[in-house]
Predict the structure.
Amino acid sequence: MSKRVLIISMEAFEKSELFYPRSTLIDAGVEVVVASKEMGEIRSMDGLDWSDPIEVDSTFGDVSAADFDALLIPGGVANPDAMRVESQAVDLVRAFVKAGKPVAAICHGPWTLVEADVVNGKTVTSYPTVRTDLKNAGAKVVDQEVATDGNLITSRNPDDLPAFTNALIGALNK
C-alpha cells in the first residue's frame, strides 16, 4: 500500500521547504497532496523574493487526517503566520497529532503547532525567531537540525531539509 502525505500551505511559503520535501517524497514513491485555503495556485518565496507557484490539489476543508499517513508544514514567515488563523488548518494539525501520525514542520512552520496547542512537553526545534513562542507554549526547544519527539518532527531552516525529509520518510516506513 502506498503512503500519502498532506502538505498544508498558504501563499508565501519558503520555496525550498515545500518543493524539496515534495520532490523527495514523490521520488520515494509517496503520494503527495498540497492543500490550502482555496484552490488555484499559491506562490512561494525564495528568501525575500516572490518565486515559483505550486498548484493546490485540495482545500483544507476537503481533506481529512484519516486519508493520509503524515502531515508536512513548510515555513516561510508569512505562510505559517497566516495558517495560524485558519481554523481548518489548525484543526488538521490537531487531528494528525491526535491520530498519532507524523507531523513534520520546518522553520516557521512550528507556529502552526503552537496554535494547535500540541507542543506542550515536547522537544522541538525551529527557526530562532519562533523559539520563544514554542517555549511559551510549553515545549523544550533545542538547536539541532532535526528534533523528533513522538510523532512531531521539526527542523530549523532550509539547510536542514535533507535530515528533515529523511526523518519524515523514516517515520512513514515504521
Notes: The mean pLDDT is 97. The chain has one domain: 4-172.
